[in-house]
Amino acid sequence: MEENTNKKTIEEMMTENLQLTQEIHKMTKSVKNYVIVQRILSVVYLLLIVVPLILSIIYLPPLLGNVIGQYQNLLGGEQNVGDMKNPQNMGNILDQAQKLLNENNK
Q1: Which of 18, 46, 84, 85 supports an S-S bond with 65, CB 3.0-4.6 Å?
Q2: Could you tell me which residues come within 8 angstroms of residue 92 by beta carbon, excluding any fewer than 6 positions away?
């Protein structure tokens, strides 16, 4: 009799353990899917930040060079605005352009 009750409790414990294991398995699958989606989104977010920066580094200096050249022509020719190929001179270029615009507005 005692063996029967022990056997039943063991079977009940085994079925309960099986159910709990199945629930845990479902939860780990959903967590795994969530982690995969988050990794993909983090790469997409990184690309959304890095790609425009790279494109601006590549295409912005020539565009600004053309704009500065047009402003030089409008302001009277051969005024030294600076070298567009040197990024350190970018601040100087903007300062000089601002000064020239202020002088013409007076």
Answers
A1: 84
A2: 82
Where do the domains of the chain lie?
A: 2-105
Alpha-carbon distances, residue 70 vs 65, 80, 82 (angstroms): 9, 13, 14
Closest CA to 96 of 73, 58, 76, 68: 68
Q: Given the structure tokens 């790469």, which residue do they identify?
A: 43
Tell me: the pLDDT tens digits for 60-97?
888 888 888 788 887 775 545 445 556 666 677 777 87
**Residue type (1 letter), 18:** L
Q: pTM for the whole thing? A: 0.49
Contacts of 54 (CB under 8 A, 6+ apart): none
Q: Which residue has the tokens 């009799």?
A: 1
Q: Scanning the structure block, which residue is given the tokens 């402003």? A: 71
Q: Cα separation of 90 and 93, whole Å?
A: 5
